[in-house]
Write a structure and sequence with these properties.
Elements (H helix, E strand, L loop, with lengths): L1 H22 L4 H20 L3 H24 L5 H28 L3 H24 L13 H13 L2 H30 L23 H16 L20 E3 L7 E7 L2 E8 L3
Antiparallel strand pairs: 1-2, 2-3
Helix pairs in contact: 1-3, 2-3, 2-4, 3-6, 4-5, 5-7, 6-7
Length: 281
Amino acid sequence: MISQTIGQGAQVILRGIVRGLMALHVKPNHLTVLGFITSIWAAFVFASGHFVTAGLVLILAGLFDMVDGMVARTANTATPFGAFFDSVMDRYSDLIIYLGLIIYYGQQDRSTYVVLVSVAMMGSVLISYTRARAECLIPSCKVGFLERPERLVLLIIGSFYFMEPVLWAIAVIGNWTVIHRILHTRSQMRLSGQEAGQGRSGRQPQGSMRYVRGTWRYDVVCVMILGFIFLTPGSVFDGSLFSKRQEPENQQEIVPDPKKTQVRTFNRGIFPPSRQEISPP
């Protein structure tokens, strides 16, 4: 499977980084704090509209998030408090990144995307909360697709391409993951007879489909999401939405003559600038 091959290659790199960090005697909690600080940096860069730079910072934040647990397990220093602390800092990191996007879209006077980022933020927080709360009632609740690594990868893709379709994907699939976990928890409780008035039915629980990384089902969902992001026309996202994002450092506005056509050029991430001509009134 594609995701399995990518994961195996990434693990080779990560193990080398972990060995280097252990040689430097870096503690896992220090890496967790560094990841949170890097997320604050990414949020600030998002708020200022420099999406490509924010994407690079997010890659660094994601690296800290991946290696802190690996360092703890490899050095045999994993503790329940460490896991708790890492989970809390991950929630703070998620919220601060979305806050940066809310500030950016608010400055652009795009209220639709301020609301959309808020919906994506709610889903992202509730994905983790529903699992934590459900696992107080049932043994495991890892169903659904859009966990934190997937959300982080999507935000990185949006930083280098266009953020708008990524936000739609996170908002819709993230909140569907929450609903999926609610249904799974309810069905598991019914199956075990924990829910009041329900006995053991002997039926397989509904809503228990899992998207395990490295399986064909996981790869299919990834291809569908990437297809939506890269192939959906820009007009679907609020008309000429994709030509509206402005990178401050590359923005040009040339008005040589009020009687002539006004030409504006906006930087579009790592792609060549787009040009649109606006006829004078």
